[in-house]
Amino acid sequence: MRKIAILGSTGSIGTQTLDVVREHGDIEVVALSCGRNIDLIEKQVREFKPKLVSVWNEADAKALKTSLSDMDVKVSYGMEGLIETATIDESEILVTAIVGMLGIRPTIEAIKAHKDIALANKETLVTAGHIIMPLAKKHGVKILPVDSEHSAIFQSLQGNENNKINRILLTASGGPFRGRKLDELKNIKVEDALKHPNWSMGRKITIDSSTLVNKGLEVIEAKWLFGVDLDQICVVVHPQSVIHSAVEYEDGAVIAQLGTADMRLPIQYAIYYPYRHALSGKRLDLFELGSMTFEKPDTDTFVGLKLAMEAGIKGGNMTTAFNAANEKAVAMFLDRKISYLQITEIIEAAMNNCSFIENPDVEQILATEQDVYDFINSRW
Hints:
Layout: E1 2-7, H1 12-23, E2 27-33, H2 38-48, E3 52-55, H3 58-67, E4 74-77, H4 78-87, E5 93-96, H5 104-112, E6 116-119, H6 122-139, E7 143-145, H7 148-157, E8 165-172, H8 190-193, H9 203-211, H10 213-226, E9 233-237, E10 243-249, E11 254-258, H11 264-272, H12 286-289, H13 303-314, H14 318-334, H15 342-353, H16 362-379
Parallel strand pairs: 1-2, 1-5, 2-3, 3-4, 5-6, 6-7, 8-9
Antiparallel strand pairs: 8-10, 10-11
Helix pairs in contact: 4-5, 5-6, 6-10, 6-14, 9-14, 10-13, 13-14, 13-15, 14-15, 14-16
C-alpha cells in the first residue's frame, strides 16, 4: 500500500492524482491541502478519508472543520498546515502540486522528513534548485518529476545511469499562438491564451505555455533535476505533443518517451516508481498520427523563453526575479489589468531591477520575490 500526501489536491495535477488513486486499490491518501476551494476539498476528504486536511486561511479552516465535524480528520491552515501536510508521519511520497514559490518551504521540510517528492511544482527547483537537490541527496530522498517533459527525460534515463548525456531534447507544443509574430499578439485576450491545443491544465500554466515562459522554467528545472548545463538543453517545438522529450547520449543514440497527452501517466509513474501499472485511457496510435513535425522556437516573438535562458545563465536570485515577475504578471493578465505582451515586458523590467545575489538562502529567495512584487506594484 503506497501512502501519499498531496499539496494542491483541488488543482489540475491534484485532481488527476486522485484519479490515479481511484483507478488503483493500493494507494492511501493520508493528507490533502488546497488554497480556497473548500467545497471540493470537503468532497475529497469524504471520499478518501485522509488523517489531515489543510487550507490556506483560518476562516476557511474553521468553516471546513464545522462541515467535517462528523469525520475523524484534523484541519490545519496556512504555511504551518502545508508543512504539516508535507511531513505527516504516515506518508511515503509527497505530491507537490501547488502553484508558485509557496512550495519551497514544505518541500524542504518534507525532504528533511525523508519523504520522496513527486514534483509538479517547478518553481521550487527554478528558484531553489541549488538548495533542494543537495538536500535531497544528503537525506537519500528521490525527486521524481511529474511534469510530462521531465518525466519523459527521467524515463529515457532509466538503465543509463552510467552513460554520459550529450543533450536533452525538451519538447514544446508551441502553445496556441505558434507561428504568430509579435504584431499578431497585441490584442490577445485571456480567453484566447487559455485555449491550449493539446493539454488540459490549470489557468496559470496554460498562460505560461502560451508565452513559452513555461518552457523556460522547464529548462531551468531540467538543469537541476538532471545535472546538466543549460547549453546541453535544446528546446524543440513539436506541435503534436507525442514525443514528450528525449535524451541524446554521447554515442549519438536518442532515447525518447512517447505517449498521448495524458498527465495521469507521469503522475502514476512518479507514485509507483520504478514500477509500471495498467492505466485506462487512449493509447498512442502511430497510424492515426501519420506524421510528426519539429521546429526551432521563435525567441524573437516569444521573448519569455529567451529571458528564462538569461535568468538561468545568470543564476542566483535572478531565476527568482524571473519567476516572481511572471507569477505576478500572469495574475494581472488573468485579472485583465495588463495586456498580453506586457507579461514579458514586466518580467524583463523586474530582472533589470533585481539586486543580484549569487547563492541566496530561502529567506533571500523569498525577500527577492517580495521585492519583485513591490517593484511591479509601484509601476503597473
